[in-house]
Every structure is written in C-alpha cells, then in structure tokens.
C-alpha cells in the first residue's frame, strides 16, 4: 500500500528543546523517542543546557551520539510515514544541536515592548517541575508566557503529574493501578533497545523518561489540543491556576486529576493518572516506531488506523454544537487500517475536562452512547437535557445560555501484536441557543524546557461539537504558511510610517498589480495578507437585505430590519486561487456581518455583527492554519473594524460608521451570557470619516510610543459624493496622526478605499492592498511613485 494513504496532519508546530542530557539517563531515553516523532514537528533547536543537577557542564556530544544512531534508520523511517511529512535528515538535526543560555531576557533588552510581547505570545512552555528558581523567575518576570509546570515542594517529584509516565514503582503512588509491564527493563530491552537508534536508549536508573510528557503533550495523535492543556493528552492534563487571567499566574497551567480504573479493577484519582492511563498506547506506539526503524519494507511493520468520522478525515478535534437533549449519530465506517488488520472501535466520554472542580460526578452529565452496529462503527449519542448540562449548579443555581463543553473520545485500535490506536476527540459544545464556540488547533510556536519524547502507535481524535462550515477548494494546499509568519504591518511598521510621512495630496500612485480573486466574494469587508502568498478576506453574504423603517422611524434602538445572511472568511493564494471558505455564522443568526480583520502572527481577529446600527456583535479570533475560531465576548452594539495590540493585550473596535471606538482588555474575560463592557469608549474626532478596515502598526517612536494603526476610510461629503483616504490613527484615542487622500477608482468607478485594506513593504517600497468591489472582486496593489 502507498504511504500516501497513511494518516496525515494539517500543520507542524515549531519546537525548541532544552535538555540537561547526561545528568541521568532519562533525557537520552526521551531524545530517542523524540526523534521517532521528528517528522511531526518543525524543530528549531535541540539545546544542551545545565540544570540544578548538573550545574557546571553541558553534553551536546551525547545528543550527537543519538543522532548518529538515527542516521542509520532515517531512510527506513521514511518508508512508514506520509510523503507530505518526511523525517528530517540527520544532517539537519546535527545542525540544530547547540548549547547556551535561554533568550527571554535578551528579547526584553533588545526589542521594543510591543515586539517583545508579540514574541512571547508565541511561546508555549512545558517544563515538568520547577527544578530550581528559573521557572518561578520566568513566570514572575514574564507573566504573559503560556507556561505548564507542576508545582510542589522542593524535590518532591512524586507529587507531580509527569511521574505518571513510569514513576509508580519508584515513588509508590497508585499501587495496583498502573500496569508497569511495558516499563520493565526486560520489556524495554526486547522492544526498544534494538537497532542503530534503539541501541542508544540507555538503561534507566530512577524512572525512565521523566521528561517525556513535555513531548507527549504535542504529539499529533488526535487527543491533545495544543491551546487547551485542560483537555488532556498523553502528556497529562493541566489547568490554569488563576482563572482571572491576572497576576503572576495568569497563564500558568498546573496539575489536575483524572479518575481511572486501574489494572486491579479499582478506581484511582490522581494527577499521575492523567498520564499513566495512556501508558499501554504510548508504549505500543514507541515499540512500533522502533520496528519502523528496523524495516525498510512497509509490509513488515504495523501502522496506525486511518480515521474518518462523519466524513471528516484525520485526528483534528471535531467540534459540533448540539441542542441540549438531542441525539446525534457518529459514523466511523470509512475508517480503515493500512495493513489490512481488523479494527475495534471504542467510544467513551472523557468527563474530567468538562469539570470545573473536584466532584466530577456531581457536575458533569452523562452522554448516552448507543451502538448502531455490532462493532460500534456507528453510534448514536444523546445529549443531556438542558436542566443537566445548561445549569449552573454551584454558584447561581440558575440556567445558563452557554452549556457545558462535553468530550467524547473515539479510539480505533488494530489487531496487530503491538496494537496501534488512532483517536479522535469529539468535544461537544452543549448550549441552549448560543453561537458556536471553537477550540483552536493552529500552527503554534512551542518552546519546551526539558527533553523530548515519543509515543507508541495510538491515534486519538476528539470530535468536538462546534466547527465552522468549511468548504475546501484545494485540498492539497494548506490554509496558511507553516510556521505562521509575523504580521507584515507590524514587522515593517517603522518603514511604513517613514514612507507614509512623505505622502502628500499630490502623490502619484502606481498600480503594481491586479489579482482577480476566484469565485464569489459577496461584499468584502477586511483583508489580511499572511506571509507573501496568502490572503484572508472577511466578507458578508446577504440573503435577505436589511430594510430601513418607513418615515425615518427607529424601533428598538435601530433604524432598520435585521435582514439575514452569512459571514465568511475566504482564503486565497498569491495568484487569487480560492483555497477555502469558512462560514462563521449560523443559518438564522442575526449576527452575520463580518467587519474588518487584523492578523497578529498567531490569530486573525474579527467582529461578527448584526448589519445595522445600535445592535449586537461578537468578537472572535480565528486560527489561520485551521480556520477554527474562538468566541471571546459579546458587545451590545454593532462592531466593524478591529485591531489587536499584543503588548498591551488590548483590542480596539469601531462601531457603525466608525463614530466611536471601544478599548477592550483581554485580561478581563467576560461571560458570553451578557454583553461585555470596554475599558473605555472614545469618540472619533473625525466624525464623518468611516474607518473601514485597520491594521495594527505597534507603538510608534515617532509618536511618543503611541499605539497606532493604519485605516482605510470613506467620507460622504454630499449625496452621492464620497472621498477616500488612508490614515495613521491613534488606536487608543482615534486621533488621526497622518491622513492622505486616495482618489483611485476601479474600472467600475468604485473608490479603492471602500472596505478592505492591508499594507506591506516589498523590495523596500510600501505597498497598499485594496479589495473594493463586491461580487467577483479584484485585488488592487498600489505603491507611491
């Protein structure tokens, strides 16, 4: 069978590994496992560092020794993986081995505050335990860093979740629960310590692979969701220590517990159980990959089942929104095994990620799962009624509009000796009539302290209930570059501001290119150029036009009917070819108008509003890599343009006509059950200029470090007469700092500044990107002569 039929994945996270290798054998063990998964990641560095247990030396030579073993098997490994995701060459890995100190302090000293914050926003740190005061210093000095670490008294590692990897005999926890048979030295000798790479795996002294959970957390097996450690993964389950998002623990995740039936039939509740519950899977996976390293023949080894649930292929979390009390059928009949092995299907509810406190059984409702086929390829799942899953039992005792996020896991396991499992997680959002909520699975930057590790052949997938309706036009083309590039406007902000300051009313503009965008674009509202070859466009499809009330009347605070339609994010390549279309609004929703958008290097920020003044809106962010989105908060007014200031963790949004701006703090989350309140509202000093689409340019030294944005705009000076322009605007006050009239029109007479705008610097020259026409739209690219 061709390897192109194997399970694939959408993107590769960037991974940077720090390891005190040779302090004891476990880091070397973890590195062996890590290399067997190296095709799943964009590895930025493998760095030998000191630690509290090895303070005076580093041992990069031991990393090279293991990579030498890898060099003898990489050709075999590539015969067992999808051709889109080959293993890196040994030469590439050798070039990544370094030694040296961390860089966070250097970032702080060498970069402006906004750029440093933008860099830190890309970090996801998993350090197992705090071995010295380094982790505490990082969390105190840089509280905005996403940080996973078990916290306990000095040297009390037996209390930490990561010891669930193999520490039950050494530390004495959960005796009788974990099955240790696949962690014994005899099993490891037979199944792991074989071949050129496996033979570099040393015998363990204390426990094997203590650092491995850092790597298991991001393995692409369908179970883990990288932005949500609380959902659980082979690397354990971790939750925020401070839900307020403020203070030194605002982004610190630490241990939680799972209740798991052990090998002796008893139930064990512990943080270690969040890892040892997966031990059989990750050890089978490890052993099978070792067999890949030994066998050039595809038929001589075992491979993961290929999953398909309700026509959705792959491991990515499937999110759906279901009305409380309803039934839904899940069909995995198209799943198959590339080796021709028979498959078993297991559907089960993972309750702990839903719970908000210790007493899971009192808080989390049961999913009723009914097999529709003898082998459980098809099941019917009944959602709990509203009084169970849409009810606040612990604080208000009242119904809630946003119900529980319930998690359903499908495990598909083959019948081979070292059986391999593929998993899909269906995380379902249970709500009583509220807009969709999406879990993010995007191309993220991972910065890992500790060793990396690898897992056995299990594939997990979560169907999760709330995904946008995505139409993919070019399945072989990724939605966004990997890794995600930094935002063009912020990267080139100084040059953009310098060139903008030279523009005048008489500046001549040269049309650099016109790129027709494929397919219907309805009414474009915002555009974001991501990298050099991707354009994301927000657009409104209006199926029922709004209608103004007669005689200038206003009803319920607005002047027109709601109308109907859909909000779209459409992706194009650099030639204008349509890649995908994500519909973000639901049929029947009155919020269908997508406004301007802003890309910050990680997310696209957007507003989804009613298409009328004095109405309502939802603020959301979307992953360019997956087109999945998070609903952040709701607003009791129409919102159009939006920019994100990553250094201040604020958003600026503009209401109908750009008459007023609102400043929002991302450190003060608001429940979706009520409208959020901004930090402040500001009146647009240029009242009659309707800013359409804006891009954040950072904190400009030329303007006393003010937060500034570039906006396109239109002003009506008389009936039927409009003038256009582009302005540099203070993002906190809406004060225009520089304004330049733009008079160019399309071949059909439309002002180019109508709605979408973006800016970049190409070959040293500032370029402006306009997409003004409705229907079949053409991108117009201009630069000043």
UniProtKB/TrEMBL annotation:
<dbReference type="InterPro" id="IPR013783">
    <property type="entry name" value="Ig-like_fold"/>
</dbReference>
<protein>
    <recommendedName>
        <fullName>DUF1593 domain-containing protein</fullName>
    </recommendedName>
</protein>
<feature type="domain" description="Cellulose-binding Sde182 nucleoside hydrolase-like">
    <location>
        <begin position="104"/>
        <end position="238"/>
    </location>
</feature>
<dbReference type="InterPro" id="IPR011483">
    <property type="entry name" value="Sde182_NH-like"/>
</dbReference>
<dbReference type="Pfam" id="PF20055">
    <property type="entry name" value="DUF6454"/>
</dbReference>
<dbReference type="InterPro" id="IPR048527">
    <property type="entry name" value="Sde182_C"/>
</dbReference>
<dbReference type="InterPro" id="IPR046312">
    <property type="entry name" value="DUF6454"/>
</dbReference>
<feature type="domain" description="Cellulose-binding Sde182 C-terminal">
    <location>
        <begin position="328"/>
        <end position="422"/>
    </location>
</feature>
<dbReference type="Pfam" id="PF21027">
    <property type="entry name" value="Sde0182_C"/>
</dbReference>
<feature type="domain" description="Cellulose-binding Sde182 nucleoside hydrolase-like">
    <location>
        <begin position="14"/>
        <end position="103"/>
    </location>
</feature>
<dbReference type="GO" id="GO:0016799">
    <property type="term" value="F:hydrolase activity, hydrolyzing N-glycosyl compounds"/>
</dbReference>
<dbReference type="InterPro" id="IPR036452">
    <property type="entry name" value="Ribo_hydro-like"/>
</dbReference>
<dbReference type="InterPro" id="IPR011044">
    <property type="entry name" value="Quino_amine_DH_bsu"/>
</dbReference>
<dbReference type="Pfam" id="PF07632">
    <property type="entry name" value="Sde182_NH-like"/>
</dbReference>
């Amino acid at each position: 069978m061709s390897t192109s039929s194997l399970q694939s994945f959408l993107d590769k996270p960037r991974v940077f590994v720090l390891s005190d290798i040779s302090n004891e054998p476990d880091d070397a063990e973890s590195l062996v496992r890590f290399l067997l998964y190296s095709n799943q990641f964009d590895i930025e560095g493998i760095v030998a560092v000191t630690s509290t247990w090895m303070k005076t030396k580093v041992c990069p030579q031991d990393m090279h020794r293991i990579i030498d073993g890898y060099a003898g098997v990489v050709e075999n490994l590539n015969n067992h993986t999808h051709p889109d995701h080959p293993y890196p060459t040994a030469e590439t890995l050798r070039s990544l081995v370094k030694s040296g100190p961390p860089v966070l302090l250097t970032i702080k000293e060498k970069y402006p505050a906004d750029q440093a914050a933008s860099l830190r926003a890309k970090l996801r740190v998993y350090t197992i335990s705090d071995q010295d005061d380094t982790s505490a210093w990082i969390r105190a000095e840089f509280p905005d860093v996403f940080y996973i670490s078990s916290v306990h008294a000095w040297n009390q590692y037996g209390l930490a979740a990561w010891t669930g990897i193999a520490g039950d005999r050494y530390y004495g926890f959960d005796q009788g629960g974990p099955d240790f048979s696949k962690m014994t030295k005899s099993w490891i000798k037979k199944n792991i310590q074989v071949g050129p790479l496996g033979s570099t795996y040393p015998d363990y002294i204390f426990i094997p692979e203590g650092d491995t959970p850092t790597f298991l957390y991001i393995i692409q097996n369908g179970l883990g969701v990288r932005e949500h450690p609380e959902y659980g993964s082979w690397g354990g389950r971790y939750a925020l220590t401070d839900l307020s998002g403020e203070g030194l623990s605002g982004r610190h995740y630490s241990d939680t517990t799972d209740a798991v039936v052990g090998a002796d039939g008893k139930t064990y509740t512990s943080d270690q159980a969040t890892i040892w519950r997966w031990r059989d899977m990750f050890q089978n996976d490890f052993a099978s990959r070792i067999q890949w390293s030994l066998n050039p023949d595809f038929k001589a080894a075992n491979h993961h089942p290929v999953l398909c649930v309700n026509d959705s292929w792959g491991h990515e979390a499937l999110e759906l929104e279901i009305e409380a009390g309803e039934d839904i059928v899940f069909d995995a009949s198209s799943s198959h095994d590339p080796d021709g092995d028979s498959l078993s299907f297991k559907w089960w509810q993972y309750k702990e990620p839903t719970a908000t406190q210790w007493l899971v059984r009192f808080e989390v409702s049961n999913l009723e799962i009914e097999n529709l086929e003898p082998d459980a390829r098809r099941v019917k799942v009944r959602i709990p009624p509203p009084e169970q899953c849409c009810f606040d039992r612990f604080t208000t005792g009242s119904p809630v509009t946003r119900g529980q996020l319930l998690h359903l896991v499908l495990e598909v396991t083959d019948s081979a000796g070292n059986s391999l499992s593929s998993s899909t997680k269906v995380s379902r959002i249970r709500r009583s009539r509220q807009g969709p909520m999406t879990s993010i699975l995007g191309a993220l930057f991972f910065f890992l302290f500790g060793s990396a590790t690898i897992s056995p052949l299990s594939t997990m997938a979560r169907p999760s209930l709330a995904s946008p309706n995505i139409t993919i036009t070019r399945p072989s083309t990724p939605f966004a570059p990997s890794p995600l590039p930094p935002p063009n406007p912020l990267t080139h902000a100084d040059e953009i501001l310098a060139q903008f300051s030279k523009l005048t009313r008489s500046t001549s503009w040269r049309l650099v290119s016109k790129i027709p965008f494929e397919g219907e674009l309805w009414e474009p509202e915002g555009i974001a150029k991501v990298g050099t070859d991707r354009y994301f466009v927000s657009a409104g499809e209006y199926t029922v036009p709004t209608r103004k009330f007669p005689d200038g009347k206003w009803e319920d605070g607005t002047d027109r009917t709601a109308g109907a339609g859909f909000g779209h994010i459409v992706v194009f390549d650099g030639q204008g070819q349509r890649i995908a279309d994500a519909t973000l609004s639901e049929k029947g929703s009155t919020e269908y108008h997508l406004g301007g958008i802003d890309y910050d290097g990680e997310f696209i920020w957007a507003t989804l509003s009613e298409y009328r003044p004095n109405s309502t809106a939802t603020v959301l962010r979307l992953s360019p890599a997956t087109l999945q989105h998070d609903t952040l908060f709701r607003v009791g007014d129409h919102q159009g343009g939006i920019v994100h200031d990553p250094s201040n963790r604020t958003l600026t949004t503009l209401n109908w006509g750009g008459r007023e701006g609102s400043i929002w703090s991302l450190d003060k989350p608001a429940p979706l059950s009520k409208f959020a309140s901004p930090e402040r509202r500001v009146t647009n000093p240029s009242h009659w200029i309707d800013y359409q689409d804006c891009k954040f340019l950072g904190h400009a030294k030329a303007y006393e470090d003010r937060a500034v944005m570039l906006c396109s705009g239109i002003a009506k000076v008389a009936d039927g007469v409009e003038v256009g322009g582009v302005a540099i605007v203070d993002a906190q006050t809406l004060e225009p700092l520089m304004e330049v009239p733009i008079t160019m029109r399309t071949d059909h007479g439309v002002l180019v500044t109508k709605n979408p705008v973006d800016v970049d610097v190409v070959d040293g020259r500032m370029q402006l990107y306009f997409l003004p026409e409705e229907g079949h739209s053409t991108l117009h690219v201009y630069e000043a002569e």
